[in-house]
User: Which sequence fits this backbone?
């Protein structure tokens, strides 16, 4: 059987991944090496990730803020392990002005007094601000999140997995006690776990990273790890207990109830657009992207089947009525997201474009379907399409979407368990 994506997963998994990104119209390489342009379908997935996580962060007491893209070099020099860990990945701004030279070419002219680091992560700049905001135990805890972009200079890049610039959220908190900071670190790890499993339908293994994999400058790093279809692990998110290391580097102090000056205990935690890469590699197949309904930008696409201009208006009107009926139904507390694809292209090409984009449900509607008051429905998690009465579909559509969500999670969970072995000795591991 011929599939839409070539090569297949079994033939060349890395190239299959690249072809799924292209076929699903998620992103493309930019003119700047190692960076990507995230296209509307890909950004729609990221917007849904943002929307769900942002709600969860606020439910756990966090507030959003924004901090500068540029960080003075001197700030990085305060924390030795941190600067050593990120030194090779830093992009550095040294000039602030362009001028034309004798050949008429633009060249950097105004050298900065101090080089600026393009944010690879914000511990040092946020620590500087925390040191100004915190004076007393009454100011604690501070629970801050930032949605932003970061830059880490990468030599080998791959869209959604490792790019020079990527989008993320980074949480930063300060606490009066070690116990509170550790609890925060583990609380946010659990938020990531629940989000991954409940929305992305990706089962994870959570735990503490080894010392060699620890975030530079942290006391301990915890992560959620996802198993891809090539049986390799992908780090889906991290939560760091920073101890008092960054507080000492940035002089984040507070007076306790006895009036004694102490250093705060801090945390940081984040997930990135890499989650979209994980989503692709866990669920997709040799026909393209497969999206769990809870995170899909559109739940249902309606494809009008039109033969001749005289049918067009009547069929489009019927599609519009169907769209309005479906949109009155809620899924996960929100109206079901529906669109009509009325592009004037071949029906087969139109159908396959949506298969490759991973939209959960496709509905084909033509004159015969209108006459019989039925719908021809394709589920992206199954190979076959079915004929179903319109009334029955409207009654069942919410349940169908949730069944798909559970099916994708169970499929990924079974794969993870089938490819996980417990060993009790080093010899057995080898």
Assistant:
């Amino acid at each position: 059987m011929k599939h839409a994506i070539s090569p297949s997963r079994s033939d060349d998994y890395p190239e299959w991944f690249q072809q799924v990104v292209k076929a699903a119209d998620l992103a493309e390489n930019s003119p700047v090496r190692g960076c990507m342009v995230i296209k509307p379908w890909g950004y729609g997935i990221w917007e849904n990730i943002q929307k769900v996580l942002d709600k969860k962060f606020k439910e756990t007491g966090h507030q959003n803020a924004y901090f500068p893209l540029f960080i003075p070099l001197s700030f990085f020099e305060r924390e030795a392990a941190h600067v050593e860990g990120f030194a090779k990945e830093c992009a550095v701004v040294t000039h602030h002005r362009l001028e034309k030279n004798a050949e008429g070419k633009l060249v950097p002219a105004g050298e900065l007094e101090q080089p600026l680091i393009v944010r690879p992560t914000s511990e040092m700049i946020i620590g500087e601000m925390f040191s100004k905001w915190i004076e007393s135990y009454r100011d604690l805890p501070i629970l801050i999140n930032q949605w932003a972009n970061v830059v880490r200079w990468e030599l080998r890049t791959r869209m959604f997995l490792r790019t020079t610039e990527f989008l993320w959220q980074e949480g930063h908190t300060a606490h009066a006690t070690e116990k509170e900071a550790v609890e925060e670190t583990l609380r946010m790890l659990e938020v990531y776990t629940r989000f991954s499993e409940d929305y992305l339908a990706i089962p994870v293994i959570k735990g503490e990273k080894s010392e060699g994999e620890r975030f530079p400058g942290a006391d301990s790093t915890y992560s959620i790890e996802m198993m891809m279809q090539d049986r390799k692990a992908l780090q889906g998110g991290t939560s760091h207990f920073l101890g008092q290391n960054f507080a000492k580097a940035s002089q984040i102090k507070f007076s306790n109830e006895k009036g004694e000056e102490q250093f705060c205990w801090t945390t940081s935690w984040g997930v990135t657009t890499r989650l979209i890469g994980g989503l692709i590699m866990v669920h997709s197949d040799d026909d393209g992207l497969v999206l769990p309904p809870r995170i899909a930008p559109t739940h249902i696409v309606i494809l009008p089947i039109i033969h001749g201009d005289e049918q067009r208006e009547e069929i489009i009107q019927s599609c519009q009525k169907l769209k309005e009926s479906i949109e009155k139904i809620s899924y996960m507390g929100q109206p079901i997201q529906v669109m009509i694809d009325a592009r004037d292209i071949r029906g087969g090409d139109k159908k396959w474009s949506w298969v490759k984009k991973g939209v959960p449900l496709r509905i084909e509607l033509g004159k015969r379907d209108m006459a019989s008051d039925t719908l021809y429905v394709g589920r992206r998690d199954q190979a076959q399409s079915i004929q179903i009465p319109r009334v029955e579909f409207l009654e069942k559509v919410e349940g169908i979407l949730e069944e798909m969500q559970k099916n994708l999670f169970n499929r990924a969970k079974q794969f993870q368990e089938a490819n996980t072995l417990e060993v009790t000795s080093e010899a057995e591991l080898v």
About this structure: The CA atoms of residues 179 and 265 lie 9 Å apart. The chain is about 35% helix and 25% strand. The mean pLDDT is 96.
